[in-house]
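Section 3.1: Structural characterization of target chains.
Under the original work plan, the team committed to producing a structural model for every single-chain target entering the pipeline before any wet-lab resources were allocated. The record below documents one such target. The sequence was received from the expression subgroup and is listed exactly as submitted; it comprises 165 residues.
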Amino acid sequence: MKSALAQMLRVGSVMQFWLKPFFLLVSIPRPEGQGDWSRVVSNNVLMSAIIIYHNGECSKCRGALELLQERGIPHEVRWYLAEPLSRMELAVLVTKLNMKPSELVRTSEELYTDNYAGKDLSEEEWVTILAEHPILMQRPIVEVGDKAVVARPAERMFEIIPANI
């Protein structure tokens, strides 16, 4: 069970994941009496890996969050306005979205029309702007492992959420 994102190493009673883009080592202990690592992976890693980037003022975000809750799908909520993404997190997220940073910008926001409309900015500059002004990010965004989607309509999230959850 290997992917481009993670390499799993079984070390004694612990499974370790090396997440390549983040150079992060995560260790998950095997539950007592359970020898099936796939169950540990699906119950402890995959389910907690669903992240919704949420703005409570946005009806589309609320709709997507309600859909996850109604279906009982475990997830994490990232209140990205209260806890803005770093430049590094944004760079990783746009890669998972398979988008350019400029494509993630909400051009209907007043902040955009007043300050950025018509300017010739680089993709690197857009990453900086989005980090400084997270209100400009398209929403809602749902992330699962090495993929993410702008969940409009909310059902788009099921393009990346595995059916067995």
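The chain has two domains: 6-48, 51-159.
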